[in-house]
Amino acid sequence: MSLPPGFLDELRNRVPISRVIGRKVVWDLRKSNQARGDWWAPCPFHQEKSASFHCDDQKGFYYCFGCQAKGDALTFLRNADGLEFMEAVKVLAAEAGMAMPEPDPRARERSDRRSQLFEVTEAACRWFRLQLQTGAASEARDYLQRRGLDEETERQFDIGYAPDSRHALGMALREKGFDESQIIEAGLVAKPEGGGQVYDRFRGRIIFPIRDGQGRCIGFGGRAMDPNARAKYLNSPETPLFDKGRNLYNLASARSAVSKGQPLIVAEGYMDVIALARAGFAGAVAPLGTAITESQLQLMWRISPEPIIALDGDAAGQRAAQRLIDLALPMTGARQALRFVILPAGKDPDDLIKSSGAGAMRALLDGAKPLVDLLWARETEGQVFDSPERKAALDRRLQDAISKIPDELTRQHYSEEIRSKRRELFGNNWQRRGFDGKGRPGSRKAQRGNVVRLPAGVTRLDGPNAGPSLLEGASLLLCALRPDLVARVETRLERLVPQDPDRAALLHDLLTGGQSPAGARALETLRADAHLGLTPAVIREQDQENAAAILVNLLDRLEAERAAGTELARAETEIQGEVDEGLTWRMQQIARARHQAERPEMEDSGDMNEDRDALSAQLQAWLSKEIWRKPPRR
């Protein structure tokens, strides 16, 4: 739906932004200046006690100095309540007393049709609720009581019952005046493909109404009471109202709870959500019978920047977590993160809360793991890394996964975290094993010494030998001798691109904590190089800061040398371009002079000789004055 020009501006002007935001925050009146429309409050988007959230009525914008959330009234409604853009416009228009622009006839027809379908689903919801109180639903009521659901919970979630009848719901809705076509389109009854009387989709099931973000009933989920039923859970089919891949169970209630400070918890099913809500975790939602989709992830992030995925501890829950890793990585970034809780084996949230109480669930939620931890666990658990090939395969899988992250800063932090975990898993071979003077693993006695001695006959790196290659070699040598320094300069080491394959292997070993034959060869070569030298020649292990300063200085000089080399190459290219241009210009001048010298009207030999002599002198003058230098333009 398109909006006329100026409509949004008029909307913002009519409603002070502080009125919209004031329903979600408590203003700090000591810090605020009400007369100027300058308001301060604790931020509603992250937990804090200080008033760092600023709202300016005159400008119509808000900004949080803590989490950098910002925007106008519409942005606030979308982020705080999870509304779509047009939904936020409608809410603000109602606040301002402005009528929404009339849609085109087709859009109006579709809107009217949806309104009629909402009436059908709400009528069905009320009918299911009444059926739960009948004698036919005694088994269903007993089941709900065994699961710990009281009447208040049943009313809160509008839980109902569909009797085991093929035509009861359809007849009840037709008696209320709804057309059969509407009942079919709402997904409540089905028409046989070969023709015949329509039949109810939900029969002999406990019914869980599914509502959208505005609390409207869009579909139903039903749990079978018959243990032999083909499907334990059955959802409404795809309809104009219901798309199971774009909605979440308990969305509206959870969104309201999250806006009040509750975490957004994503469980696996309806009963998990209800159990969490009864235990005080009101921000619980669930996907609708399928694995979490991309659209559902985006919907979660509109409600909370860091949802907690709470999965059952069985094999199915583990598989769901693994699938979600690959789905989430290409979308993750700042304010779009996930944390994970894997419940004890064989337990869902309801089981855990009943056996250990809400405190146990709270402890798990407080210890939720970030996505990078699950990625690492997936690629390493149950595997043996006893060869360079297996370690390389691990590196490749992790690099491929991290490369999918679109946000550069997030990608860098993932890389740093993975390197840290890799060092914890494999250790740092350079540091742990030590090296003798020939680059081979040294004895444990040598490892216990507190002095790392450099090869004899070294020279300082401040003479003509201090080119980029030697600076690079000295940096790698120092990092190999003092692997504890690698973490400090990892980012700078990653920018090195050694031309020598052995040095490249050594660099890879330093960054990953590995040990390859090629890297060992490079270390042996560096230690034997008489031109390599460090200042001082003996670096004591306890002198951490001095060694770090030397390494930083080496890298600074190396980067400066390479930067100078790049500039020199560019200058040479530009000079060559000037030479080519200047030479071309001079040759044109020579050709023009030669042409003049050979014109027919100058066939008189005396004149010709005089002109050629003059031409020869001119050429000689040009050569002595460097003809490739074109005079500057004036």
UniProtKB/TrEMBL annotation:
<keyword id="KW-0548">Nucleotidyltransferase</keyword>
<dbReference type="InterPro" id="IPR006295">
    <property type="entry name" value="DNA_primase_DnaG"/>
</dbReference>
<dbReference type="InterPro" id="IPR006171">
    <property type="entry name" value="TOPRIM_dom"/>
</dbReference>
<dbReference type="GO" id="GO:0003677">
    <property type="term" value="F:DNA binding"/>
</dbReference>
<dbReference type="GO" id="GO:0005737">
    <property type="term" value="C:cytoplasm"/>
</dbReference>
<keyword id="KW-0479">Metal-binding</keyword>
<dbReference type="InterPro" id="IPR037068">
    <property type="entry name" value="DNA_primase_core_N_sf"/>
</dbReference>
<comment type="function">
    <text>RNA polymerase that catalyzes the synthesis of short RNA molecules used as primers for DNA polymerase during DNA replication.</text>
</comment>
<feature type="region of interest" description="Disordered">
    <location>
        <begin position="592"/>
        <end position="615"/>
    </location>
</feature>
<feature type="zinc finger region" description="CHC2-type">
    <location>
        <begin position="43"/>
        <end position="67"/>
    </location>
</feature>
<keyword id="KW-0639">Primosome</keyword>
<dbReference type="GO" id="GO:1990077">
    <property type="term" value="C:primosome complex"/>
</dbReference>
<dbReference type="InterPro" id="IPR034151">
    <property type="entry name" value="TOPRIM_DnaG_bac"/>
</dbReference>
<comment type="similarity">
    <text>Belongs to the DnaG primase family.</text>
</comment>
<keyword id="KW-0235">DNA replication</keyword>
<dbReference type="GO" id="GO:0003899">
    <property type="term" value="F:DNA-directed RNA polymerase activity"/>
</dbReference>
<dbReference type="InterPro" id="IPR002694">
    <property type="entry name" value="Znf_CHC2"/>
</dbReference>
<keyword id="KW-0240">DNA-directed RNA polymerase</keyword>
<keyword id="KW-0863">Zinc-finger</keyword>
<dbReference type="InterPro" id="IPR030846">
    <property type="entry name" value="DnaG_bac"/>
</dbReference>
<feature type="domain" description="Toprim">
    <location>
        <begin position="262"/>
        <end position="343"/>
    </location>
</feature>
<dbReference type="InterPro" id="IPR050219">
    <property type="entry name" value="DnaG_primase"/>
</dbReference>
<dbReference type="Pfam" id="PF08275">
    <property type="entry name" value="DNAG_N"/>
</dbReference>
<keyword id="KW-0808">Transferase</keyword>
<dbReference type="InterPro" id="IPR013264">
    <property type="entry name" value="DNAG_N"/>
</dbReference>
<comment type="subunit">
    <text>Monomer. Interacts with DnaB.</text>
</comment>
<keyword id="KW-0804">Transcription</keyword>
<keyword id="KW-0862">Zinc</keyword>
<protein>
    <recommendedName>
        <fullName>DNA primase</fullName>
        <ecNumber>2.7.7.101</ecNumber>
    </recommendedName>
</protein>
<dbReference type="InterPro" id="IPR036977">
    <property type="entry name" value="DNA_primase_Znf_CHC2"/>
</dbReference>
<keyword id="KW-0238">DNA-binding</keyword>
<dbReference type="Pfam" id="PF01807">
    <property type="entry name" value="Zn_ribbon_DnaG"/>
</dbReference>
<keyword id="KW-0460">Magnesium</keyword>
<dbReference type="GO" id="GO:0008270">
    <property type="term" value="F:zinc ion binding"/>
</dbReference>
<dbReference type="Pfam" id="PF13662">
    <property type="entry name" value="Toprim_4"/>
</dbReference>
<dbReference type="GO" id="GO:0006269">
    <property type="term" value="P:DNA replication, synthesis of primer"/>
</dbReference>
<dbReference type="GO" id="GO:0000428">
    <property type="term" value="C:DNA-directed RNA polymerase complex"/>
</dbReference>
